[in-house]
Design a protein that fits this description.
A hairpin with a 2-residue loop joins β22 and β23. The two termini are about 20 Å apart. The strands form 9 sheets. Strands 11-18-17-14-13-12-19 form a 7-stranded mixed beta sheet. The chain has a 5-stranded mixed beta barrel with strand order 1-2-3-5-4. The protein is globular and about 70 Å long. The chain has 18 helices and 34 strands. By secondary structure, it is of the alpha+beta class.
Length: about 775
């Protein structure tokens, strides 16, 4: 990392600017966030400014997620709450929507399937293909100029009503601003791309076709965007190449293909499908490094020994011929002793990359463990089983080589100057831990006997690794890993090279996955321009980086929602049955439990417990008023599945007391709620630091800034929010509970929204792709 970042303590956040200062700006730009109630909040680009409340009549022609210009109209009383009116939509978050047609004689209306309220679309005659009333469709917005009129659209495709799963997945994609399918113009451009590599093109590149080359990917992968070559030079030194599909050779700036890829910025990986950044002809054919085929690549080649020491590095355009396609399972069996093709080379690579991995952690990379949940689906996309995959040496072999290449390319870029100034380049950076979250984590870890040296960021990373090493296999391991991840900042793309704290790298970028990430395409273009002696000076690059970071977050939200949908769909078959689990999040209105084997998370409402509980934020714990029983993150418990709502992607659990545990897959005799009575309104005042558990998880407070709302959620906020913002307690719209006992204990408070206060705490990497 840069000196100003790596050799200083964690920075303190700047103070929030006053409402008067904000109002003086007259109009500002931000992102519109519309809640279920229809209330809107413009989240400003300046993090030191409070969000601006925008009531429904003042939202103009903006939809949820749009980038808008807002004019300040009011500052409310002592709270300083800013109110405003949207004056312009600068950029649409979403132009395609999924929902249902309501057909009249000469026109139709389109009702969107959206969490946030939105107006119906007017569809003129001839723009809905004479489809019958009630048809599930995808509609593209064509115009919306005045608030007095409805938005107008055109039907672009239909969704089969019997394919509920297909409708659900496409809804997730469109609601997160991702286009389904490609335009005719993009498809035509793709069809015109050459399928044969010319000898003239090969002559411009370094030829690796006679060098042993192989790919290692998941068993179901089709887009092989990276390969590794292996060549022995002498007794000690080897030539190891990391070869990446040369997407930038086919996707040229200014084309419709490039514009669409830039707009999407990333592929989205759902449990049953991939919504690709590029058309299949490119991602799965032209650029996929399939065995037995000549392919154009962009490579980082290293002369290195078995200890991982690099003597020389070369970066440039190449042509390869893959000799073999491995799955991760293939490589792992060889590592574990089985015979296989090129086993000597695989074992050499395994030993070398494990050395690289060990040195990386010694130098400051943080070693959080990870798991991936993968669903087994039938022919209709219905989940019939769940697999839990952990990172093994086979995965780590590929990961370390990709990290080595990304680091080398970023280091090369950082050495290039344009007129004495640094080359504008899309670095992948990761800032130091969040100062406020880390400050609360350190004393909590100390309760378990783990101390932190906070003198420098490097010492903090070393303390994290030492804690994780000592806690391995102990009861507190899961809890400390969960809370430790929360303190971490989010990795982003930016031209400001502050380094990657989590990896411990001074320079880092994404070079190795241009088929599925647009920043990698930008990296390839800039590096090629540098190699040619004419570095690109892109003055719009920072804005492109921000767009890519935003789309990456949208893709992650979409992928988490897709996984949650499959979790709920899978658990529907187990209503009334009990499972062992672990408390994975705690809030004043209840706690979340993740089942051990299925990794399916659901809410245990505070109303289903046998006595009143108080919420102790500092200890991530609920404490019973009378019995003094504690419910804390990481605690093992047994739950009963009582409700599963696919529409809202929600699971409701009830706590089963130890003496009543029936075991997984058996009916519970008596959930904890069976003796529950309404909490006494004269509950004694809690001690300092203890919050009365009212069960209210309400909608977003109107007179609270975004920063304050985040602070209210801090005790349960996670870097892996799989539950979704629309989280609500059980109500009449949820799936039918399994017993009358459950429904008899509903209270008015139980029906209040929990959508904005859902704190999740998960460390497993559900559906997350490796940082390569």
């Amino acid at each position: 990392m840069s000196k100003n970042k790596r050799n200083t303590k964690i920075k303190h956040k700047s103070k929030t600017r006053s409402p008067q200062a904000a109002r003086a700006a007259s109009t500002m730009v931000g992102t519109l966030d519309i809640t279920r109630s229809g209330m809107g909040y413009v989240i400003l680009k300046d993090p030191d400014l409070k969000d601006i409340l925008v009531r429904y009549p003042d939202q103009g022609t903006a939809f949820h997620g749009d980038t808008v210009e807002v004019k300040i109209t009011k500052v409310s009383g002592s709270s300083g709450r800013l109110e405003g009116k949207i004056t312009q939509v600068i950029k649409r978050h979403q132009t395609e929507f999924i929902g249902t047609l309501s057909v009249s004689e000469n026109y139709a209306f389109f009702i969107a399937n959206s969490v946030a309220p939105m107006p119906d679309f007017y569809i003129p005659r001839g723009k809905y293909q004479n489809l019958p009333d009630g048809t599930k469709v995808i509609v593209r917005l064509t115009s919306w100029d005045k608030r007095s009129r409805k938005p107008e659209g055109i039907v672009v495709s239909t969704v089969s009503p019997e394919k509920e799963n297909d409708f659900a997945m496409k809804t997730l994609l469109t609601n997160n601003g991702f286009t389904i399918g490609f335009s005719q113009e993009v498809e035509e451009e793709t069809a015109q791309l050459p399928t044969i590599i010319s000898e003239q093109e090969i002559s411009k590149r370094k030829d690796f076709r006679d060098t042993l080359t192989f790919t290692i990917d998941p068993a179901d992968a089709k887009d092989f965007d990276d390969a590794i070559s292996f060549k022995k030079i002498d007794r000690s030194w080897y030539e190891i190449g990391v070869h990446i599909a040369d997407v930038s050779h086919y996707v040229r700036p200014g084309t419709a293909l490039d514009k669409e890829a830039a707009l999407r910025a990333t592929s989205v990986y759902l449990p049953d499908r991939v919504n690709p950044m590029l058309p299949e002809q490119i991602s799965n054919v032209l650029c996929s490094l399939r065995p037995g085929e000549e392919k154009l690549t962009f490579s980082a080649v290293f002369i290195m020994n078995k200890k991982g020491q690099v003597k020389d590095t070369w970066i440039g355009k190449t042509v390869i011929h893959s000799d073999h396609r491995y799955t991760y399972e293939d490589v792992q069996t060889i590592i574990e002793g089985a015979k296989g093709p090129y086993e000597k080379e695989i074992l050499w690579m395994k030993e070398m990359t494990q050395t690289l991995r060990g040195e990386r952690f010694e130098k400051g990379a943080i070693n959080f463990s990870s798991q991936e949940v993968k669903f087994k689906l039938d022919e209709n996309g219905k989940p019939v089983g769940i697999e839990i995959k952990e990172s093994k040496p086979a995965h780590q072999l590929v990961e370390e080589m990709m990290l080595l290449a990304n680091k080398a390319v970023a280091s090369y870029a950082s050495s290039i100057k344009i007129g004495g100034a640094p080359l504008p380049f899309p670095y992948r950076v990761h800032d130091q831990p969040d100062e406020e979250k880390f400050a609360s984590f350190v004393p909590f870890a100390r309760k378990y006997g783990y101390t932190f040296d906070v003198s420098t960021p490097e010492k903090i990373a070393q303390s994290f690794n030492e804690m994780l090493r000592q806690a391995a296999g102990k009861p507190e391991q899961h809890l400390l890993e969960q809370l430790g991840v929360r303190t971490m900042a989010k990795a982003i793309y930016t031209t400001d090279n502050i380094g990657h704290y989590g990896l411990g790298f001074k320079d880092y970028c994404h070079f190795t996955s241009p088929i599925r990430r647009y920043p990698d395409v930008l990296v390839h273009r800039i590096i090629e321009s540098c190699l040619q002696g004419h570095p690109i000076n892109d003055k719009q690059l920072e804005e492109k980086c921000k767009h890519c970071s935003d789309r990456e977050r949208a893709a992650m939200e979409c992928e988490r929602a897709g996984n949650k949908y499959k979790q709920v769909e899978y658990m529907q078959q187990f209503l009334g049955e009990t499972f062992p689990g672990v408390v994975s999040g705690v809030a004043d209105f209840g706690f979340w439990v993740e089942t051990i084997n299925e990794k399916c998370e659901g809410l245990v409402s505070i109303h289903s417990l046998m006595e009143p509980y108080a919420y102790i934020a500092s200890d991530y714990m609920l404490k019973a008023e009378f019995s003094k029983k504690k419910i804390q993150m990481g605690d093992p418990v047994t739950i009963q599945v009582v409700a599963a709502n696919l529409d809202k992607r929600q699971l409701d659990y009830h706590l089963v007391e130890e003496k009543e545990n029936s075991g997984p897959g058996k009916s519970a005799q008596k959930p904890a709620s069976s003796a529950k009575k309404k909490a006494d309104k004269t509950h004694p005042k809690a001690d300092k630091g203890i919050k009365k558990s009212s069960g209210y998880a309400g909608s977003r407070p109107e007179n609270s800034s975004k920063k304050k709302r985040e602070q209210e959620l801090q005790s349960g906020q996670s870097a892996k929010e799989n539950y979704g913002k629309e989280r609500q307690p059980a109500d009449k719209n949820r799936a039918t509970p399994v017993s009358a006992t459950v429904s008899e204990h509903k209270t008015p408070a139980k029906k209040k929204k929990e959508s904005q206060n859902k704190p999740v705490s998960k460390t497993k990497k559900v559906g997350q792709k490796k940082e390569k």
